[in-house]
Amino acid sequence: MRPDVEAMKADIEQSVALLRRRLDWDVSLRKLDELNARVEDPTLWDNPEQAQAVSRDRSRLEGQINSVRALENDLEEGVMLADMADEEGDEATLEDAREQLRGVKDRAARAELEALLSGEADGNDAYLEVNSGAGGTESNDWAGMLLRMYSRWAKAHGYVVTIEAHEEGEQAGVKSATILVEGPNAYGWLKSESGVHRLVRISPYDAAAKRHTSFASIGVSPVVDDTIEIDINPSDVRTDTYRASGAGGQHINKTDSAVRLTHIPTNTVVACQAGRSQHQNRDMAWKMLRARLYELELQKREAAAQALADAKTDIGWGHQIRSYVLQPYQMVKDLRTEVETSDTQGVLDGDLDAFMGAALAARVGETRDGN
Predict the structure, then answer these.
(1) Rounded-to-5 percentages of helix, strand, coil across the chain
(2) Please, how many CA atoms are within 13 Å of residue 310, restricted to the half-sphere of its CB?
(3) How far is residue 355's CA from residue 347's CA, in Å, rounded to a whole number?
(4) Which of 202, 217, 186, 12 lies closest to 97 in space, CA to CA?
(5) Sign of CA dihedral 129, 134, 140, 142
(6) Is the dihedral of CA 214, 163, 349, 322 positive or negative?
(7) Would you say 193 and 129 are in contact if contact means Cβ atoms under 8 Å apart?
(8) How far is residue 347's CA from residue 194's CA, in Å, rounded to a whole number?
(9) Residue 12 pairs with which residues in a beta bridge?
């Protein structure tokens, strides 16, 4: 076997072994059998909420087990193909086998990170909110760039993205916006992105072509379902309605259908304007408020999450988690994990996996050699 093929094989085998340990393989197989039996029991569906919870647990565990089995099968096929090509001196087929094994290795690396997503709400959908800092047009434009960056990351990973609220900047970008990201582990991946993001560039809005520094904040909250109790006193919530903003046209809603809710004790504000009616927007705004308050509760339980929440209080110097420098050099650097890249355009186009993976591993406190 060629040395490079042997090295990839060893890396993948190590990843698979780690995944099996984290899953507690034999215990997980027995649990999946139990969950399958429960789902097949017709009496389970007498309680729809419990049935849905059991179905979610089964789907999650089945997906994790099938992922490991697929890695093992694809590794075996890739190695067999490489061995045959090596024996026959078929370099073209050997390169095909290498490419297959590279793909398996990449999938294994991502599966390792996904195995760290064991937090209480990591598997949930997520709301991602972006707010521009002080600086007018510059910061608004930067907030718009971040909104595009996260939307592209989400869509590239198969997530569904829905704009729930959007307040445009006066000349460019956005003052604030909220998107709903739907898909497996959306919150688990995005939660480490909460904080202040700093941009340094030559401003396209400055006739003197001077370098500007702009700030915008990202906040991420898990979507919570009705099985999670969030006690909100209606008297603690102020409701405001206003006219939805948008690009205009014949379909623009000209009534005060947009809804803003303010939870007075925590000064938590959410807004929704995506629905066609005030009733729809009010329902969605309450879901968003429950998500935000649930996130606050999670932050109280996690010291690391609390540190990120503190960073949201001031969108400016000394609070940023990541710097994006476009001038006088090209560099994106995460200030928590020290991960950096010179591929700034790739990052702004949504290539965030390296940053998210490092932040996730650091937050959980596990490494490849951990238990």
Answers:
(1) 50, 20, 30
(2) 9
(3) 10
(4) 12
(5) negative
(6) positive
(7) no
(8) 16
(9) none
311/115 Cα distance (integer angstroms): 27
Instruction: Please state, in angstroms and rounded to a whole number, the distance separating the CA atoms of residues 149 and 300.
Output: 29
Q: Which of 101, 86, 132 is nearest to 15 (CA)?
A: 101
Which bin fits 318, alpha (ψ -120 to 50), beta or left (φ > 0)?
A: left
Angle 208-210-212 (CA atoms, 0-180°, nearest 5)?
140
Q: What is the rounded CA–CA span in Å between residue 303 and residue 360?
A: 14
Whether the Cβ atoms of residue 163 and residue 170 lie closer than 8 Å to each other: no
Stretch 318-338: mean pLDDT: 91
Q: H helices of the chain, where?
A: 3-23, 25-40, 48-88, 91-114, 137-156, 186-190, 278-301, 303-311, 344-348, 353-364
Residue for token digits 């303010």? 262
Average pLDDT for 4-9: 93
Residue 269 near residue 289, CB atoms below 8 Å: no
Q: Report in angstroms the alpha-carbon separations of 272 from 99, 277, 282, 353.
A: 46, 11, 7, 29
Q: How many CB atoms lie within 10 A of CB 11?
A: 16
- Here the tokens at position 112 are 């390792």
Residue 236 has a pLDDT of 92
Residue type, 313: T
Token code pair at residue 196: 């202040």
Q: What is the pTM of this model?
A: 0.69
The 10 Å CB-count burial string (b at 16+, else e) for 213-245 is bbbbbbbbbbbbeeeeeeeeeeeebeeeeeebe
Q: Tell me the percentage of the chain whose pLDDT exceeds 70.
A: 87
Which residues are 199's β-sheet partners?
214, 324
- Each residue's pLDDT tens digit, 290-307: 888 888 877 766 654 445
Length of the chain measured in residues:
371
